[in-house]
Amino acid sequence: MPANTPSPTAEDFTTMLGMVTGGFVSQITAAFAELNIAHHLSGKPQPAAYVAEQEHADAAATYRLLRAGVTLGLVTHTAGEFAATPLLGTLLPGAPHSLGHLARAWAAPGHWQPWGAFTQVVRSGSAQVESALGCSIFEYFTKNVDEGMLFSKAVTDLSTPVIAEAVPVLDVRATRTVADLGGANGAFVLSLMAAHPHLRGSVVELPHAVPDARAEAERRGLAERFSAVEGDFFEEVPSADLYLLKFILHDWSDEENVRLLRNCRDSLTPGGRLAIVEIVLGEAADPGIGALMDLTMMTMLPGRERSLAEFDALLADAGLRRSKLTHLQAPYAVIEAQAV
């Protein structure tokens, strides 16, 4: 070892082994979600054979999967039966703070294959999605509709607690029309509409997400005040009093974001504004989970997570200015902006 380098301890070895097996954990978690194990164990403890029977899976393999789940804290084992832990409940679709769809989406080929080239991403400084998938991730989702819909649901799961915090902080008393740009199934705008019956809302999305948005509006009883529109927000956006951009800007380069933000500025009604919900990076000495999410952007897309100063620079280049900042649960914030 180089001189003056601290020698690793046995504890360091164990910690690093946990990191090295992190890829295993992602696939194990996805299998738990795919096999609906949280549902099958929600009533009472069950033997592995019961779960296998419900999912038409191999009994021995299911037992080995559940045994690994004990190591991860997903289940416990007593007297031949496995029981759910509260942690397993985060994989139950529809549960508070559910991440079941996200577990499956991030372990699916559209994300898993590009991550296999991560070292090359770092060497080259550019995403390797096209070499891994043959197209961009959004084109891939258009061609692989089921995986695209799964990812839309995953984004909704990840967004749900953030939306719950963001809706109450937005003052929409003088707002009439709201457009959720790239809003997946419309969870953000529909939640805002439910809280404020005078609002009319819309989602502008790629074709694979539009049916899910319309179905969600029907499910919530808001279809009469809602529309889902196929569109490319880099070309144009419909006129609105308020644009919602939740987890959108981090997908794209600075140049692409400036084009999108200028389209918003040009189509805003007088006095209108944008509400940008994103991770806001902290200092390098304590970046938090935002730094990991930044590597996801680097791997999959031309985008990145940004600091507040970097968001301000984007807004200025697009003829906008930050008018309000509201911190949500770390690392998220709502950045409101208006035309200069």
TrEMBL record:
Pfam family membership, one: Methyltransf_2
GO biological process, one term: methylation
Residue ranges of coiled coil: none
Keyword S-adenosyl-L-methionine: yes
Gene Ontology MF annotations: methyltransferase activity
Swiss-Prot/TrEMBL keywords: Methyltransferase, S-adenosyl-L-methionine, Transferase
Annotated InterPro entries: COMT-like (IPR016461), COMT_C (IPR001077), SAM-dependent_MTases_sf (IPR029063), WH-like_DNA-bd_sf (IPR036388), WH_DNA-bd_sf (IPR036390)
Record domain O-methyltransferase C-terminal: where: 115-320
Protein's UniProt name: Methyltransferase
The organism's taxonomic lineage, starting at the top: Bacteria, Bacillati, Actinomycetota, Actinomycetes, Pseudonocardiales
